[in-house]
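Reopening this one. Same input as before:
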Amino acid sequence: MSVLAIAADGPLGSIASSRATKAFYPALSLCDLIFSGVFERHPRLTLAIVEFELAWAPHVLSSMDYTYRERQGEAIYRFKDAMLPSDFFRRNVVLSFQEDAIGIRLRDAIGVDNMMWGSDYPHSESTFPQSRKILAEILAGVPDDEQAKIAAGNTARVYDFDVASLTGRG
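Same output, byte for byte:
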């Protein structure tokens, strides 16, 4: 019989494990906020989950909707107007990413309006100075209107930036 012991291999293994599983924390917080009715009580509140990439979201959205519909003993709080947890996500939540090509391919499940790109400059994990190249590669094949939203438009909307004054247009 073979036994596999699973443990972090000292501080370096622990750091790598934390980075690889970091989406667990915002997913848990997102579920708590949605299932407790925060966005129903505060419909104009926007939650920005930043620096956790995108690809984790479709599974969490599907799991939340399933739990809400099929496990009513676990999802005790019931929303008004036949809203589902994913409806609150689409209305109230945005996610930022740096280099998540898989998340881009899942954009229909996430919602293009819920996605914001960021370079994380000047931090060490930033895409700078190759940001434009990396973004072009990740967004290859994405329609121009969706690229515009993901690369800048959604961020401007969420943070209420005056794009005309920032770009000198208008």
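So the earlier flakiness isn't reproducible anymore. For the record, The longest helix spans residues 144-158.
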